[in-house]
Amino acid sequence: MEEHTKKPGYMLLLESRGIAAGGYFCLGAPQGKNCFRVTGDCRLLDLDGALAALDENRLWEQWDSLTPITRREFIAARDALWEARRAADGRPTDAELEPLARQFAQEYAAAYAAGRWKAFCTWDEETLRRILLRAAALLPGVKGARAARKKAAQLFSEVIAAGLKSGLAGPRRKKGRQGQETPPGG
Questions:
Q1: How much helix, strand and coil, in percent to the nearest 5, is found in the chain?
Q2: What local confidence, expressed as pLDDT, does residue 94 receive?
């Protein structure tokens, strides 16, 4: 005999709006911070992937603004939130990284021996990974998101190793509460 798990009370509310486990919804406009994901085990997660501070009462109070959204809309809202945080922290936004990614891809593919691409190792780890992911997609022979992620991981190792060897970068150190990493002296 199968063992049935009891669903939280808010799942009946969500299901009545067409939102099942594995679905996405928002309270208000999808561009806001009030977008949530329902996991397979019926937990509610916010845009950061943390447990949402929602309960059945709050969902009842916001019943009129409760709307299902697509995964694509959820990801767009999450990306917009992260972009706003990066901009507020003074870190480069995605738009600011595009020219850097094109520059890296061009220097890596066309002038590898010159080694100018090694200078990218001075960026903090998160920014470097974001640059390399975009650059990997621009390199010849890289087709699809999975291949780009794999190539970006390879590029990251290569850039850091080259930076350490040439003395452009030292070991990565943690900085601040947020765990942002910066190269020594930076």
A1: 55, 10, 35
A2: 86
